[in-house]
User: Fold these one by one.
Assistant:
Number 1:
Amino acid sequence: MNPVNYLYLAALLFTIGAAGVLIRRNAIVVFMCVELMLNACNLAFVTFARMHGNLDGQIIAFFTMVVAAAEVVIGLAIILTIFRSRHSASVDDASLLKL
Amino acid sequence: MENLIGLLVLVPLLGAGVLLCGGRRLDRAGHWIGTLVAALSFVIGAVLFAGLLGRAADDRELDVTVFSWVPVGGFHADAGFQLDQLSVTFVLLITGVGSLIHLYSVGYMAHDERRRRFFGYLNLFLAAMLLLVLADNYLLLYVGWEGVGLASYLLIGFWQHKPSAATAAKKAFLVNRVGDVGLSIAVMLMFTTFGTFAFGPVLDHADRAGEGRLTAIGLMLLLAACGKSAQVPLQSWLGDAMEGPTPVSALIHAATMVTAGVYLITRSAAIFDAAPVAQAAVVAVGAVTLLFGAIVGCAKDDIKKALAGSTMSQIGYMVLAAGLGPLGYVFAIMHLVTHGFFKAGLFLGAGSVMHGMNDEVDMRRYGGLRKYMPVTFVTFGLGYLAIIGFPGLSGFFSKDKIIEAAFAKGGTEGWILGGAALLGAAITAYYMTRVMVLTFFGEERWRPAPSPDEPSAEPAAAAHEGAMPHPHESPKVMTIPMIVLAAGSVLAGGLFSIDDAFVRWLSPVTGHEEGNSPVGALTVTAATMVVMVLGVALAWFQYGRRPVPVTPPRGSLLTRAARRDLLQDDINHIVLVRGGDHLVRGLARVDHGLVDGAVNGTAAAVGGASARLRRLQNGFARSYAVSMFGGTAVLIAATLLMRAV
Amino acid sequence: MTSTGEAVQFWVLAVVAVLGALATVLMRKAVHSALSLAGTMIVLAVFYLANGAYFLGIVQIVVYTGAVMMLFLFVVMLVGVTAADSLKETIRGQRLLAGLCVLGFGVLLGAGIANASLHRFDGLGQANAGGNVQGLAALIFTKYVFAFEITGALLITAAVGAMVLTHRERTERAATQRELAEARVRGGKQLPPLPAPGVYARHNAVDVPALLPDGTPAELSVNQTLRARGQVRDVSAEALADLAALEQRSEDRLERKGKKR
């Protein structure tokens, strides 16, 4: 098997995650889809690391995880705050950013 | 002695500054300060004159450079004064007659609460006029020129509470601006042609420039002179300027303002001599104006307006003479000086009459005043004799010389000009006699007419009775200047003509040549006498022998036209106001349609596009995410394409 | 090329991962989405291990699946576990545009990967020779030390930020017990304890309301949840009927005919 298949899988997962971000309205699910996209990227990085025979790709994936963790903490805090004030976790309800 | 020249301008300017900035503290002494300042400048002028007299005839020019005014690269203009025979003549006229008018104003404006300000303006007028005649370059002359315009505006509109005075001031200012534009263009042309403004280089090298250039400069200078000297076609402001206090009229008509145009033409003699077309235009303007003013003067019942027409006519004589070239420059200035005396005297006399008649200006309501105002009568009468050219008085010498010079021009031109000048002399005699007779002779029409056969006139008469004037002689402070001026009117011409003194005095500056008149000098004098007597006789028969109706008769077409200043305002209205209106309306239409259309169209297009584009901003984060994602896709596509290519 | 075992593993688990991803997107309940995502992440962890990233594989399971996804679940529970999303689109054209973009993006990514010259395949044998964790550590603390330090700062900031965001400042004093009692009296609420249900011995069950003196059931005596579900057993009529039947039977047995009725 050619390891390029890992890359195709990463692309597929990334695309599915993107579709979820665009389609779902529940902020938490949208967030999960973002996590899915990040994971797809990590998979691609790990595969690249293996292809090139060095560990830099894994380091990047590691940093991505750390950043994703921080992002999750902040993102979920924001979702909670919005939910508290608006009693809704729908991203469409927070649509004040318009004329 | 050079320092005195600067002082000459500075003294009245300081006087004006002190009077205008001094506030009410100076109210009680302001008029005397103003008069003293004028007298002081006259003394300075006299000292300078004496100094010049003491020099040789070809060494009578003093140049003072006061400071470097505009030194910018190749452009260099100095503020400097030049005193020569021509300017010192003007200086003496301006300060001399000006001082007398100041003195007269002390009495005339005695009851005006803004008298201090009036004297401040008078001093400013003197200062500007002195700057004008003393400048040694055209740029500084322009400053004086504008200063005169400003001072005349302030003085004509001095009784600004009267709408007519405010309007007249505005009119004088606007018409003068037209002339000023001419002067500014002339100055610019001079700079591009000669690279300097100074009189010396410009006039010495005038013949080196092309004739076309010189003609343009000359015509522009003529336009400027027309504005200040109230010559056709820019004459319309002069009649309305009578709205100002009478001393102002005297100052404008005799000593300052209107003489500026003659000075400008005479000063620029070298340019006009080298540009025959411009010179011919000067002559034409002079001839037309002298008849125009004379005709207008015949029809006016307002004593000051009749005198204003007369001024226009007399300045026309001067411009005509100045247009004759070296034949006439000297006589133009000579007539200017003699005219300064007798016209100032006439205006002050008219003011004195008005002073005694409750400010009534309609001559048809005067009559028989010689008994009540003997001094005014005598001085006015001497001025009258001088202006009509009664032999031996000053007008006789100067005007006669101009008529001679006009004939001496030679050819058809000479006959036409001479004829016009002669005709003008006749009309002058006519209208001045009319003024004289209506004012000082005949019935006392200012008394309420006991006229039972005219019941319609009853209320008017009754109303008039309440304010019936009690004609009286004016105070000494007013009569003394009139007496001095009358003496000047009588003697000046004779003094100037003894041994051709005036000609010898001025000719180093202006040049002079005797023409070959096709008509003998004696013949011309005789003809002048004859037409003068004819004019006087006609007026006497028309107004002296017959009763004068208080309400003016309808009159012939020409009379009615002349009463309307020969339709000058109507023509201006039709040509300028209506034309301007149409032009502006057209421009407004273009502005509304084309410019606004383009601007509004652009705005509407942007607005419409924005309104549609705005729908993209629906506030839903997911929509924005789609845009971002689509953009990313496009970026990737572009990258891949770039790689592939 | 990789081993057959890895190929089989890939094809099996790739299907699972894709299904999990699709389920994450398509499940109506957030809990189900979260669980599907956890599954996909575990599969990815296996792939990391297969690709020689042993440290990352473990971290993926411990940090991601263990910590992050549990955090997600916490939030889902806080926000409301039962709330199911409707999948009906409300923004006009959103789904169409999203579909087009996703399709285009996917095709482009695929084309990009296919076009890239990725035929060399070195393997991590050499890099992992001294141990995967040691190799990573060497890189992190040498080449990427600044990025690492900055990441630390980012994490601390995130922690503080989360506290700031979710912290609610108390703006007034907490009510005392006395104040609460007074408020209850003023509110006109039920002051004494609620009546106990099923006062009859025969119906000693919580879904049977007590009877008021006139024989009608007292709703308050039944648990609130049962009331809301409509599971209150009204026994009053039944009890009367039973009583009547009992009396009948005892009369029959005692043969007291015609004594009553």
Note: Chain A has a mean pLDDT of 88.
Number 2:
Amino acid sequence: MASGVKPRVKVPKKAAAGETITIKTLISHKMESGQRKDKEGNIIPRSIINRFTCEFNGELVVDVTLEPAISTNPYFQFEANVPESGDFVFTWYDDDGSVYDTRKSIEVA
Amino acid sequence: MELSRRETLALGLGAAVLALVPFRANAAAEDAIAAFTGGADMADGGVTLTAPEIAENGNTVPIEVSAPGATSILIVAAGNPEPGVATFNFGPLAAEQAASTRIRLAGTQDVVAVAKMADSSFAKASATVKVTIGGCGG
């Protein structure tokens, strides 16, 4: 189990209808690649986040499959359309079965 | 063991072939791409892959992909021990089929982005990144 996993997401609080907004997400996670060795030469087992999704009011914005080549503290930036006010749901799926999620609401004027 | 002239030549030829294929991982990368495209032809253009020319630290190399009209984008780093990097699938609310992230690179190599378009054609772009310090630990 990776410890100290903390998702952080930046979404504007307000937007105009149909506007394109930029979303930035980061989650603190070691993303152990399974390639590194410890002092005794044993391979440190892989422990990464393997999937990230972002949904808005139940509709998919982006779904990312992550491999060990994604850096520590995986960061993503992408663009989304917001047709109406609602909630963004961000979900990260860990190799160990844990699921981390966070939501952000946005008001569309 | 004594080598005959023929065997020596064969060995030399084998070494030359190995030298032409710098990383065995290249084949793995091609397999990964083939699994994504199903062996379909890839057009050049239509995808933009932005990566630094020189990355000081292979542990975090910022990259950006953009492919207007794509449904998904596969990113492959041919010189890594495992070539797969990430696959982006875009949903109906994605305003642009673009994303940026940070990746690990084991050494100087080509990073390849393959986009699957809405009409299930494929497009490809690649960028060479020089890495000063590799990002695979060990």
Note: Strands of chain A lie at 7-10, 14-15, 20-27, 49-56, 59-66, 75-81, 86-94, 99-108.
